[in-house]
Amino acid sequence: MKRHHPWLSWPQLREGPMQLACHLCDTLQAAPRLREGDGAYCCVCGEKLYRNRPHSLAHATGFSAAALIFMVLAHTFPFLTMTSGSISTRLTLMEAAHVLIRDNDPLVAAGVVFFTVVAPFILVAGMLYVAAPLRHGVALPGAMRVTRWLQWMEPWSMLEVFFLGLIVSLLKLGKMAEVDFGLGLWALGGLVLCTAAALGGIDKLELWDRLEITRKGEANPT
Amino acid sequence: MNLPPPAASQELASCHVCQKVSPIQMENCPRCGTHLHLRKPHSLERTWALLLSACALYVPANLMPIMTVSGLGGGEANTILSGVVAFWQMKAYPVAIVIFTASVLIPILKVAALVWLCLAASGRVWASPRALSRVYYITELLGRWSMVDVFVVAILVCLVRFGALMTITPGPAALCFSGVVILTMFAAMSFDPRLIWDRHRADLADAPPP
Fold first, then answer.
1. Is the dihedral of CA B176, B67, B153, A171 positive or negative?
2. B139 and B177 share a domain?
3. Do B99 and B6 have their domain in common?
4. CA neighbours closer than 13 Å in the CB half-sphere of residue A7
5. What is the pTM (predicted TM-score) of this model?
6. Which residue from A91, A164, A172 is facing B158, i.e. has the nearest CB?
7. CATH says A55-219 is which class?
């Protein structure tokens, strides 16, 4: 990869000035390159346009890899175990969906699975798939499409809401029976934090620019 | 005060997905292939339709039981509001406030905010565009947290299965309520905040110079 100016985080895309339209007020404005950590704000409505986040791709790679490991743990081990007399029940995401289907609520089960299993998995795995090779200037096949999915999945990944739900349920159950915390609960906490860090740390403008650069590089290799 | 021109006035469209600015004649974004629009298509109509269906679903979501607790002493159906009241009577005030905020306050405020935004975007009420943008931002941010009640039901149904001793089963309101949350999230997504600023620009152009 060609070296570029040290405080610019990614290679320049084209010669002319970049333009950007604010997504709130559609004001067309120049998008200058920023120093690390600086942000650009819309001159009309003050909305944040973009930020140059240092080591954005490295952070995304690291946090999404960690999130993937936490995800495996969160699915293998129960969040909570409840014991009453001789019967004990376990709570995992798939078990919750299974019980909902058995109780004749397949649509709610599908919703729970989509919001807490499918969408977070697409987010985390997709992020790793795109960001890790892109650090070395490589875009794996379908990277563009995966990045589009990432954008669509973001609002539907609701693990942090599920976590709040767990806390509320714990308070609700507290006095009724013996509830034990499982390894899954801590893994879920780690998963929520890592997903948020991976998503919050990524510079979308850089991600798309880099994808475009790699694709151009593949189209006409020098 | 004169505002800088919007991208749309120069036939430039910002891609919904990757934000690249390209001429609208290109139809598809040259970078990511998404179909280009100057504004989200039929934004207000779609938002109104989704809001109305969300309101319609909100009624059964609150009237029907969200879960049924059955045990030795017979069965007891819980609605969303009765759950809040139960927490309040148990003196678990923080939980009561969290549940009340997430499942009653946020959906109502969200629908109200989107109605206000739609009315302002079509020019029937006036409000500062900055305030409206802020309202839109908060609406989009908070919407998903209403789902917490549905997750609580899923968790309790999974954990409390002790046969005749105590069993919790989901009620029809769980499905209705998740429908409300999903519909309002789609409504917020289909609303185009740029319409607010279009209206503001038109107002400024119409206003006589001082």
1. positive
2. yes
3. no
4. 6
5. 0.89
6. A91
7. mainly alpha
